[in-house]
Amino acid sequence: MTTVELRSVRKTFGDFVALHGLDLNMTDGEFVSFLGPSGCGKTTALRIVAGFELPDGGSVLLDGADIENAPPNKRDMGMVFQDYSLFPNMTAIENVAFGLRVRGQSASQMKETSGKMIEMVGLKGKEGNYPHQMSGGQQQRVALARALAIQPKVLLLDEPLSALDAKVRVSLRNEIRVIQQELAISTIFVTHDQEEALTISDRIAVLSQGQLEQFGTPEEIYRHPATPFVAAFVGESNIFHGTIAGTDDAPSVRIGSVEMPVQQAAGRTSGERVRVLTRPESTYLHVTSDGDRKGIPATVVSQQFQGARTRILTHLDHVEDPGAVILTDVTGGGHDHLSGGVQVDVTFDPATALVASAEELESATVAQ
Amino acid sequence: MRTRRHIGLGAFVIIVIVFFAVPLISLLVFSFTGADGPTLDAWSSIVENPGFYSALGLSLTLAALTTIASLILMTATVLWVHLRAMHLRALVEGITLLVFAIPAITLVIGATGLLLGLAPWALGSPLILVPFYVVLSFAFTYRALDAGVRAMDLQTLVDAAQSLGAGWTTILLRVILPNLRTALLGAAFLTITVVLGEYVLSSLFLYETLPVFMAEIGTAEAQGAAALALLTVLFTWGLLVLVSFVSRRLGGGRPQMTVVTT
Domain span at residue A209? Predict the structure, then answer.
């Protein structure tokens, strides 16, 4: 059983605060992604777990024990780096065997374990190749095999896919997930790619400016973003300008001339100017019929066929945010009637819509 | 268009060959020139001169010791700068160049004054030249090793090795030095050439190294000096070929980390 816990981990580089007291814990065999834009502190957090950086405050616990004083080579963690980091003077099999040799394994043990690892990452026959004789994807597979060969307690992946081309990236990330589940090894995966994080993680820690914005399952992160930053950074969001209306029992936001129910508006001051964020797939269009207003008036601008779904772009008609483009994703066929110029009403799911002040939203956008 | 480019390239190569070959051929011809026609006198006088062997032996000893000291010192320095003090890189580079701004006579007088007070016995041994040669070769060794380290992404390799459980000794012996082989050989080559060509310091300290011996011969026997100069050039070239050969053999067919030119 291997658990990792970060308690109030702080780190500064000169005047720059990389981490403002990060609290996070992961359970045995869990695949956790650190997701965020450049400079959010995700790699710093990973390097602190690995022991390459010392925190200015707080602690890192492995299986409940503080490992602050353990050097990187005593932490029993395998790490895969962004730029492969294979030893150029060693062949693939020698790279994989390196950690085993350091541990004093016999030649036969090393050969057996390295061979198994090479086979597991699908590189049988490439054992004798030097790094420069392999593609980026193959090198990263060797790096993964090398990290796993030592049977580490925790596997650390520092943007291991970002140097690879799109096709290899997708196939390797799936392989990483399969191997991780097979070995049931606790894994921390650093990425700035939300699709990667959403696809392979058990839980995602979204970081911004050194702070944890949200820590949850991919579905929670996507469907119920806890902060404007998460809503804006993960996936796409529509932004409606409005003012708080209704009551705490029946919270709503007035957008233009229409009052829309929004659960998250509860607790805010009536009349407060806010922004409402919604996902394109939780935003709906209704063709306007005389005297039967269902939502915020808008006009269809265009349709974009995107294979499994169709994206419809509309402009809101009300004056507060003229020109705002609202995205709506619809599946299946039969949307020809929603062509350019058609008058529609826009609604959204009141349960998943997020409410933020203009300042909150602005700081979230700046952080990206 | 391509033909014109080929002609231009050919002309350039010919000019370069002439530039290097003409002085060497002239030296060779001159070394065989005697009052009564071609002669081996200059070469035989060198070979028969016991001073040549002692000067050569001293220069080679100094070259070996300087190379060892220089490589140990500068490898440690370069690794320290790259791993722990990148912000000091420009400063260290500047320090390695300082020797070019200080005249040799100043260096010698200053050091002699210091040593007379602290360790006068040190002046009685030609080995006193070693630290000076190390300083003289700073700029060359530092740059050769720095280029090698920059080509290998040192920090990531060290991190990777540490994460696999390796300590510093293992990292140095199994990861860093094997990947710095070519840079180390290049730095060694540069250091040896600096020592074999250095005249001012050794003459000021009154030790007869190969360049000092060559200068002395030159005052009495110009052909002998020409023969010696040619020998030194051929030795240096031989060393360069050896460095290339060894680095290729050690490299196991993988790309070399750095190429050093003199």
Answer: 4-225
Helix locations, chain B, DSSP H: 2-31, 41-48, 50-84, 89-97, 104-118, 129-151, 154-163, 168-170, 177-179, 181-197, 200-204, 210-220, 222-251
Nearest by CB to residue B170, choosing from A52, A78, A102, is A102
> Pick from A225, A242, A262: which residue ends a domain?
A225
Among B157, B159, B252, the residue with its CB nearest the CB of A87 is: B157
Q: Are residues A200 and A99 in the same domain?
A: yes
Listed in sequence order, the residues at least 6 apart from A316 whose beta carbon sits closer than 8 Å to its beta carbon are A240, A256, A296, A297, A298, A322, A324, A326, A346
Residues of B in contact with A132 (CB under 8 A): 254-255
Distance from CA of B253 to the nearest CA of A (A): 9
pLDDT in tens, B18-42: 898 898 899 899 989 887 888 888 8
CB contact under 8 A, A81 and B160: yes
State whether A279 and A353 are in the same domain: yes
Mean pLDDT of B4-12: 88
**Could you state, in chain order, the average pLDDT of each consecutive group of 10 residues for chain A (368 residues)?**
91 93 94 94 96 95 92 93 92 96 93 93 92 93 94 94 86 91 94 92 95 94 88 88 88 90 90 91 85 83 88 83 81 80 91 85 64
Residues in A 32-61 with any Cβ partner in B closer than 8 A: 50-52
Query: Is A344 found in the same domain as A291?
Result: yes
d(CA A301, CA B134): 75
Q: How many angstroms separate the CA atoms of B188 and A60, rounded?
A: 45
Q: CATH assignment of B49-251?
A: 1.10.3720.10
The answer to whether B164 contacts A77, with C-beta atoms less than 8 Å apart, is no
- The domains of chain B are located at 49-251
Please count the residue pairs, one from chain A and one from chain B, whose beta carbons lie less than 8 angstroms apart: 77
pTM: 0.79
How many folded domains does chain A comprise?
2
Give the distance from CA A354 to its chain's centroid. Answer: 18
Q: For residue range B203-229, what is the model confidence (pLDDT) as tens digits?
A: 988 899 999 998 888 888 888 888 888
Q: Are residues A85 and A187 in the same domain?
A: yes
Q: Which amino acid type is present at position B236? A: T
Determine the Cα–Cα distance for residues A89 and A240; give it in Å rounded to an integer.
58
The CATH number of whichever domain residue A277 belongs to comes to 2.40.50.100
Q: Is the ipTM of this complex over 0.95?
A: no
Q: How far apart are CA B152 and CA A354, in angstroms?
A: 48
With CB atoms and an 8 Å threshold, state whether B163 touches A78: yes
DSSP one-letter string for A167-203: HHHHHHHHHHHHHHHHHT-EEEEEES-HHHHHHH-SE
pLDDT at A61: 95
Alpha-carbon separation of residue A31 from A132, A145, B70 (angstroms) = 31, 17, 49
Considering the domain architecture, whether residues A185 and A220 belong to the same structural domain is answered as: yes
Contact A262, A353 (CB under 8 A): yes
CA distance B172 to chain A (A): 12
Find the CATH number of the domain harbouring A119.
Answer: 3.40.50.300
Please tell me which residue, B234 or A134, carries the higher pLDDT value: A134
Listed residue (A246, A278, A256) closest to A356, CA to CA: A278
| B166 contacts A103? CB cut-off 8 A | no
Indicate the residue type of A246.
Answer: G
